[in-house]
Amino acid sequence: MTNAVHISKMTGKLDGFRAISTNTITNKFCIKMNSAKAETICKHCYSHTMLKSYRKNMAPALQRNSDLLSSRPLEPNEVPVILDAVFRFDAHGELINEMHLYNLMTIAERNPHCTFSLWTKRKDIVQNCRVTRPVPANMIFIYSNPKIGKIMDAPPLGFHKTFNNVPEDQDVDRQNCTGQQCKNCLLCYRHDTTDTIVEKVKVY
Length: 204
Prior knowledge:
Elements: E1 8-9, E2 18-20, H1 28-35, H2 46-51, H3 59-71, E3 86-89, H4 98-110, E4 115-120, H5 123-132, E5 139-148, E6 161-166, E7 196-200
Parallel strand pairs: 2-3, 3-4, 4-5, 5-6, 6-7
Antiparallel strand pairs: 1-2
Helix pairs in contact: 3-4
């Protein structure tokens, strides 16, 4: 089916998870953040590195998702059935526009048995979209803090949690996302856990 949403099987830290992602290297926001002079986590983006090198073969499928999810509402028969208990949005990529988020929320609504977590830095898109559309109860919005070493304890308006990166030797006692696979942790995939996630910086 040409217009089918591509679902990726994750590996490494995310082994056991599946995700709906988009193409980082064609996302204008990602390009801007990755090339900015300011020191942010985006300058260490694993997705940019992977999609430009040893995972180039993923780019066409992710680009189809970018084009489909950001251009128009999904037709009912295009909304995928997700059988997983937990699922990730944007393991690669970032929100493109409000239509992109609208479609992700539709996918969550159509799969109420599954918990969906979305990482994004696009406060503007989240806050605009949430004004006009109820948030699915099974969807967790995680603000991906771009500033390294600046832990955000309170999520921005419209978000449930923050995801923060710190240097390896900073705030060691607060690092709660280090050294384990996501499936053995689930801090980001449950509403009833901490709302402040802290990981040591990974350099790619």
